[in-house]
Specification:
The structure holds two protein chains of two kinds. By secondary structure, chain A is an alpha+beta fold. Chain A is built from four helices and six strands; from the N terminus they run αββαααββββ. Chain A has a six-stranded mixed sheet with strand order 1-2-5-6-3-4. The longest helix of chain A has 57 residues. In chain B, helix 3 packs across helix 4. Chain B is built from four helices and four strands; from the N terminus they run H-H-H-H-E-E-E-E. Chain B is of the alpha+beta class. Chain B starts with a helix and ends with a strand. Chains A and B meet through helix 1, strand 2, strand 5 and strand 6 of A and helix 1, helix 2 and helix 4 of B.
Chain lengths: 161, 171
Protein backbone atom coordinates (compact mmCIF):
# COMPACT_ATOMS: atom_id res chain seq x y z
CA UNK A 1 0.00 0.00 0.00
CA UNK A 2 2.85 2.40 0.96
CA UNK A 3 4.73 1.58 -2.26
CA UNK A 4 1.61 2.11 -4.35
CA UNK A 5 0.98 5.61 -2.96
CA UNK A 6 4.67 6.50 -3.49
CA UNK A 7 4.33 5.48 -7.13
CA UNK A 8 1.17 7.58 -7.46
CA UNK A 9 2.96 10.59 -5.98
CA UNK A 10 5.82 10.23 -8.49
CA UNK A 11 3.31 9.99 -11.29
CA UNK A 12 1.64 13.22 -10.16
CA UNK A 13 5.04 14.99 -9.89
CA UNK A 14 6.03 13.80 -13.40
CA UNK A 15 2.76 15.07 -14.83
CA UNK A 16 3.30 18.44 -13.13
CA UNK A 17 6.90 18.69 -14.42
CA UNK A 18 5.80 17.98 -17.99
CA UNK A 19 2.98 20.51 -17.62
CA UNK A 20 5.31 23.26 -16.41
CA UNK A 21 7.88 22.47 -19.11
CA UNK A 22 5.18 22.84 -21.79
CA UNK A 23 3.95 26.07 -20.16
CA UNK A 24 7.48 27.53 -20.11
CA UNK A 25 8.06 26.63 -23.79
CA UNK A 26 4.74 28.24 -24.73
CA UNK A 27 5.54 31.41 -22.80
CA UNK A 28 9.05 31.59 -24.31
CA UNK A 29 7.61 31.37 -27.85
CA UNK A 30 4.97 33.99 -27.05
CA UNK A 31 7.45 36.50 -25.60
CA UNK A 32 9.93 35.98 -28.46
CA UNK A 33 7.18 36.72 -30.99
CA UNK A 34 6.09 39.80 -29.02
CA UNK A 35 9.67 41.07 -28.85
CA UNK A 36 10.31 40.67 -32.59
CA UNK A 37 7.02 42.42 -33.34
CA UNK A 38 8.01 45.30 -31.06
CA UNK A 39 11.35 45.63 -32.84
CA UNK A 40 9.60 45.68 -36.22
CA UNK A 41 7.25 48.44 -35.07
CA UNK A 42 10.18 50.49 -33.73
CA UNK A 43 12.01 50.13 -37.06
CA UNK A 44 8.88 51.27 -38.90
CA UNK A 45 8.58 54.29 -36.60
CA UNK A 46 12.18 55.26 -37.31
CA UNK A 47 11.69 54.93 -41.05
CA UNK A 48 8.51 57.00 -40.86
CA UNK A 49 10.35 59.70 -38.94
CA UNK A 50 13.10 59.82 -41.58
CA UNK A 51 10.51 59.96 -44.34
CA UNK A 52 8.62 62.80 -42.64
CA UNK A 53 11.86 64.82 -42.48
CA UNK A 54 12.31 64.23 -46.23
CA UNK A 55 8.78 65.50 -46.90
CA UNK A 56 9.30 68.60 -44.72
CA UNK A 57 12.55 69.25 -46.51
CA UNK A 58 10.97 68.95 -49.97
CA UNK A 59 8.32 71.55 -49.17
CA UNK A 60 10.57 73.98 -47.33
CA UNK A 61 9.59 77.48 -48.55
CA UNK A 62 13.17 78.65 -48.01
CA UNK A 63 14.32 76.43 -50.90
CA UNK A 64 11.44 76.00 -53.34
CA UNK A 65 11.61 76.87 -57.03
CA UNK A 66 9.08 79.60 -57.50
CA UNK A 67 8.19 81.50 -60.62
CA UNK A 68 5.14 83.75 -60.97
CA UNK A 69 3.36 82.05 -58.10
CA UNK A 70 3.88 78.57 -59.49
CA UNK A 71 6.07 76.14 -57.60
CA UNK A 72 7.92 73.23 -59.17
CA UNK A 73 7.70 69.99 -57.22
CA UNK A 74 10.88 68.34 -55.94
CA UNK A 75 12.98 71.35 -56.74
CA UNK A 76 15.51 73.40 -54.78
CA UNK A 77 16.96 76.66 -55.99
CA UNK A 78 20.73 76.50 -55.92
CA UNK A 79 21.27 80.04 -54.66
CA UNK A 80 18.64 79.64 -51.97
CA UNK A 81 20.46 76.48 -50.90
CA UNK A 82 23.74 78.34 -50.55
CA UNK A 83 22.04 81.12 -48.61
CA UNK A 84 20.28 78.69 -46.26
CA UNK A 85 23.55 76.83 -45.72
CA UNK A 86 25.14 80.09 -44.55
CA UNK A 87 22.18 80.84 -42.29
CA UNK A 88 22.24 77.36 -40.77
CA UNK A 89 25.96 77.63 -40.09
CA UNK A 90 25.08 80.12 -37.36
CA UNK A 91 24.43 78.03 -34.22
CA UNK A 92 21.66 80.34 -32.97
CA UNK A 93 19.69 80.00 -36.19
CA UNK A 94 20.33 76.26 -36.48
CA UNK A 95 18.55 75.85 -33.13
CA UNK A 96 15.39 77.33 -34.71
CA UNK A 97 15.33 74.44 -37.19
CA UNK A 98 15.77 71.75 -34.53
CA UNK A 99 12.00 71.27 -33.95
CA UNK A 100 11.67 70.66 -37.70
CA UNK A 101 14.57 68.32 -38.39
CA UNK A 102 15.58 67.02 -34.94
CA UNK A 103 18.71 64.96 -34.66
CA UNK A 104 19.67 64.50 -38.29
CA UNK A 105 22.14 65.46 -40.99
CA UNK A 106 20.81 66.88 -44.26
CA UNK A 107 23.12 66.81 -47.26
CA UNK A 108 22.34 67.88 -50.81
CA UNK A 109 24.34 65.98 -53.44
CA UNK A 110 24.60 67.41 -56.93
CA UNK A 111 25.52 64.60 -59.31
CA UNK A 112 24.90 65.93 -62.79
CA UNK A 113 26.27 67.89 -64.66
CA UNK A 114 28.65 68.90 -61.84
CA UNK A 115 29.37 67.10 -58.61
CA UNK A 116 29.01 68.97 -55.35
CA UNK A 117 27.98 68.14 -51.77
CA UNK A 118 26.29 70.73 -49.57
CA UNK A 119 25.85 69.89 -45.88
CA UNK A 120 22.82 71.97 -44.99
CA UNK A 121 22.04 70.92 -41.43
CA UNK A 122 23.90 68.79 -38.92
CA UNK A 123 22.70 68.01 -35.45
CA UNK A 124 24.03 64.77 -33.97
CA UNK A 125 23.08 63.37 -30.57
CA UNK A 126 25.75 62.59 -27.97
CA UNK A 127 25.52 58.84 -28.27
CA UNK A 128 24.38 57.23 -31.52
CA UNK A 129 22.92 53.74 -31.52
CA UNK A 130 22.08 53.50 -35.21
CA UNK A 131 21.88 55.72 -38.27
CA UNK A 132 19.26 55.62 -41.03
CA UNK A 133 19.87 57.22 -44.42
CA UNK A 134 17.00 58.20 -46.71
CA UNK A 135 17.57 59.65 -50.15
CA UNK A 136 15.27 61.43 -52.54
CA UNK A 137 16.08 62.78 -56.04
CA UNK A 138 15.59 66.53 -56.52
CA UNK A 139 16.03 69.10 -59.26
CA UNK A 140 18.62 71.74 -58.39
CA UNK A 141 17.64 74.83 -60.32
CA UNK A 142 20.12 77.56 -61.18
CA UNK A 143 18.08 80.63 -62.03
CA UNK A 144 21.11 82.58 -63.26
CA UNK A 145 21.95 80.06 -66.00
CA UNK A 146 18.32 78.88 -66.32
CA UNK A 147 19.35 75.22 -66.02
CA UNK A 148 18.26 72.27 -63.94
CA UNK A 149 20.77 69.89 -62.43
CA UNK A 150 20.12 66.39 -61.12
CA UNK A 151 20.73 65.93 -57.42
CA UNK A 152 19.42 64.20 -54.37
CA UNK A 153 18.76 65.08 -50.77
CA UNK A 154 20.15 62.65 -48.22
CA UNK A 155 18.79 62.66 -44.71
CA UNK A 156 20.64 60.73 -42.06
CA UNK A 157 18.60 60.35 -38.90
CA UNK A 158 19.92 58.95 -35.65
CA UNK A 159 18.62 56.52 -33.07
CA UNK A 160 19.90 57.39 -29.62
CA UNK A 161 20.95 54.92 -26.95
CA UNK B 1 -19.59 -2.79 8.02
CA UNK B 2 -19.37 -4.06 4.49
CA UNK B 3 -21.87 -1.50 3.33
CA UNK B 4 -19.83 1.40 4.81
CA UNK B 5 -16.64 0.17 3.13
CA UNK B 6 -18.43 -0.24 -0.19
CA UNK B 7 -19.84 3.28 0.07
CA UNK B 8 -16.45 4.91 0.85
CA UNK B 9 -14.82 3.01 -2.02
CA UNK B 10 -17.49 4.25 -4.42
CA UNK B 11 -16.96 7.84 -3.16
CA UNK B 12 -13.19 7.57 -3.73
CA UNK B 13 -13.70 6.30 -7.26
CA UNK B 14 -16.13 9.12 -7.98
CA UNK B 15 -13.66 11.72 -6.67
CA UNK B 16 -10.86 10.27 -8.83
CA UNK B 17 -12.91 10.51 -12.00
CA UNK B 18 -13.86 14.10 -11.10
CA UNK B 19 -10.15 14.96 -10.77
CA UNK B 20 -9.41 13.38 -14.15
CA UNK B 21 -12.16 15.40 -15.79
CA UNK B 22 -10.72 18.58 -14.20
CA UNK B 23 -7.27 17.69 -15.58
CA UNK B 24 -8.72 17.15 -19.02
CA UNK B 25 -10.57 20.46 -18.83
CA UNK B 26 -7.32 22.29 -17.92
CA UNK B 27 -5.47 20.64 -20.83
CA UNK B 28 -8.26 21.61 -23.24
CA UNK B 29 -8.23 25.24 -21.96
CA UNK B 30 -4.44 25.45 -22.39
CA UNK B 31 -4.61 23.96 -25.86
CA UNK B 32 -7.33 26.44 -26.75
CA UNK B 33 -5.16 29.33 -25.55
CA UNK B 34 -2.22 28.02 -27.59
CA UNK B 35 -4.41 27.71 -30.66
CA UNK B 36 -5.67 31.26 -30.12
CA UNK B 37 -2.10 32.63 -30.17
CA UNK B 38 -1.26 30.62 -33.29
CA UNK B 39 -4.38 31.93 -35.06
CA UNK B 40 -3.59 35.49 -33.90
CA UNK B 41 -0.07 35.40 -35.37
CA UNK B 42 -1.03 33.51 -38.51
CA UNK B 43 -3.92 35.67 -39.61
CA UNK B 44 -2.66 39.01 -38.30
CA UNK B 45 -2.43 41.56 -41.12
CA UNK B 46 1.16 42.69 -41.68
CA UNK B 47 1.92 46.31 -40.77
CA UNK B 48 1.74 48.67 -43.77
CA UNK B 49 5.32 48.65 -44.96
CA UNK B 50 7.00 52.01 -44.96
CA UNK B 51 9.67 50.62 -47.27
CA UNK B 52 7.27 49.97 -50.15
CA UNK B 53 5.72 53.46 -49.80
CA UNK B 54 9.21 54.96 -49.69
CA UNK B 55 10.24 53.13 -52.86
CA UNK B 56 7.10 54.20 -54.64
CA UNK B 57 7.81 57.88 -53.81
CA UNK B 58 11.45 57.37 -54.78
CA UNK B 59 10.52 55.97 -58.21
CA UNK B 60 8.06 58.82 -58.89
CA UNK B 61 10.53 61.50 -57.81
CA UNK B 62 13.33 59.94 -59.84
CA UNK B 63 11.26 60.06 -63.03
CA UNK B 64 10.14 63.64 -62.37
CA UNK B 65 13.68 64.83 -61.67
CA UNK B 66 15.13 62.93 -64.61
CA UNK B 67 12.75 64.40 -67.19
CA UNK B 68 13.39 67.94 -66.00
CA UNK B 69 17.18 67.82 -65.92
CA UNK B 70 19.20 69.74 -68.47
CA UNK B 71 21.69 67.57 -70.30
CA UNK B 72 24.99 68.62 -71.86
CA UNK B 73 23.47 67.81 -75.25
CA UNK B 74 22.78 71.41 -76.34
CA UNK B 75 21.41 72.00 -72.80
CA UNK B 76 18.25 70.17 -73.80
CA UNK B 77 16.02 68.76 -71.10
CA UNK B 78 16.10 64.97 -70.82
CA UNK B 79 12.47 64.83 -71.95
CA UNK B 80 13.42 66.73 -75.12
CA UNK B 81 16.21 64.24 -75.84
CA UNK B 82 13.73 61.36 -75.40
CA UNK B 83 11.20 63.10 -77.64
CA UNK B 84 13.88 63.45 -80.31
CA UNK B 85 14.76 59.77 -79.87
CA UNK B 86 11.10 58.74 -80.30
CA UNK B 87 10.67 60.91 -83.41
CA UNK B 88 14.04 59.96 -84.89
CA UNK B 89 15.00 63.64 -85.10
CA UNK B 90 18.71 64.20 -85.61
CA UNK B 91 20.21 66.31 -82.84
CA UNK B 92 23.87 66.77 -82.18
CA UNK B 93 24.56 65.13 -78.86
CA UNK B 94 28.28 64.66 -78.05
CA UNK B 95 29.56 61.96 -80.43
CA UNK B 96 26.32 60.00 -80.54
CA UNK B 97 22.63 59.82 -81.47
CA UNK B 98 19.86 61.02 -79.14
CA UNK B 99 18.80 57.44 -78.25
CA UNK B 100 22.30 56.25 -77.36
CA UNK B 101 22.94 59.49 -75.51
CA UNK B 102 19.71 59.08 -73.52
CA UNK B 103 20.55 55.48 -72.62
CA UNK B 104 24.10 56.29 -71.50
CA UNK B 105 22.95 59.32 -69.54
CA UNK B 106 20.15 57.34 -67.85
CA UNK B 107 22.50 54.52 -66.96
CA UNK B 108 24.93 56.98 -65.40
CA UNK B 109 22.23 58.65 -63.29
CA UNK B 110 20.71 55.35 -62.16
CA UNK B 111 24.13 54.02 -61.19
CA UNK B 112 24.94 57.16 -59.21
CA UNK B 113 21.65 56.98 -57.31
CA UNK B 114 19.56 53.79 -57.08
CA UNK B 115 22.46 51.36 -57.66
CA UNK B 116 24.61 53.23 -55.13
CA UNK B 117 21.77 52.94 -52.56
CA UNK B 118 21.61 49.18 -53.10
CA UNK B 119 18.34 49.08 -55.03
CA UNK B 120 17.48 46.68 -57.82
CA UNK B 121 15.56 48.23 -60.70
CA UNK B 122 14.25 48.01 -64.23
CA UNK B 123 13.86 51.12 -66.37
CA UNK B 124 12.26 50.95 -69.78
CA UNK B 125 10.30 53.09 -72.21
CA UNK B 126 7.18 51.94 -74.05
CA UNK B 127 5.41 53.62 -76.91
CA UNK B 128 7.95 53.86 -79.73
CA UNK B 129 10.16 51.41 -81.62
CA UNK B 130 13.25 53.59 -81.31
CA UNK B 131 12.99 53.99 -77.53
CA UNK B 132 12.93 50.22 -76.92
CA UNK B 133 16.71 50.25 -76.77
CA UNK B 134 16.61 52.66 -73.83
CA UNK B 135 16.43 49.95 -71.19
CA UNK B 136 18.52 49.84 -68.03
CA UNK B 137 18.46 47.21 -65.29
CA UNK B 138 20.36 46.45 -62.11
CA UNK B 139 21.57 43.68 -62.04
CA UNK B 140 22.14 43.85 -65.78
CA UNK B 141 19.88 40.96 -66.74
CA UNK B 142 16.90 40.82 -69.06
CA UNK B 143 14.58 41.67 -66.16
CA UNK B 144 15.81 42.45 -62.64
CA UNK B 145 12.40 42.61 -60.93
CA UNK B 146 10.68 39.24 -61.01
CA UNK B 147 8.85 39.23 -57.68
CA UNK B 148 7.41 42.07 -55.62
CA UNK B 149 8.13 45.53 -57.01
CA UNK B 150 7.11 49.17 -56.80
CA UNK B 151 6.33 50.50 -60.24
CA UNK B 152 5.89 54.11 -61.38
CA UNK B 153 5.00 55.31 -64.85
CA UNK B 154 5.50 58.78 -66.23
CA UNK B 155 3.73 59.77 -69.42
CA UNK B 156 5.66 61.92 -71.83
CA UNK B 157 3.78 63.49 -74.74
CA UNK B 158 5.86 63.54 -77.92
CA UNK B 159 3.23 64.93 -80.28
CA UNK B 160 -0.54 65.09 -79.78
CA UNK B 161 -1.70 61.48 -79.57
CA UNK B 162 1.84 60.10 -79.43
CA UNK B 163 2.90 59.31 -75.88
CA UNK B 164 5.83 57.56 -74.29
CA UNK B 165 5.48 55.65 -71.03
CA UNK B 166 8.59 55.75 -68.90
CA UNK B 167 8.46 52.92 -66.39
CA UNK B 168 10.68 52.55 -63.35
CA UNK B 169 10.32 49.39 -61.27
CA UNK B 170 12.16 49.22 -57.96
CA UNK B 171 12.38 45.76 -56.39
Amino acid sequence: MHRKSQLKMFETIAVLIVFFILLTIGMAIYFTLQKSQGKQELEQQRQLRAQSIVQRMLYLPELDCNFVQSTTDNCFEFHKLKALQEVLNTPTTAIDYFPLFGYSTITIHLIYPTQLNIVLYRHEPGQIQRTFATQNPVIIRNTLTDTNAFGYVEITSYAQT
Amino acid sequence: MHLVMWKSLAMLKHKKSQMEIMGLAIIIILMGLGLLFVVQYTFKKPLPTVTSAKESILAANFLHTLLNTNTDCQKLLMKEVLQACALGTVINCPDTTSCTYAKNHLKELLEKTLKKWGKKYDFYIQGAQSTNAVKVSNPETQQACKGEKQSKTSILTVTPGFHLSLVLDIC
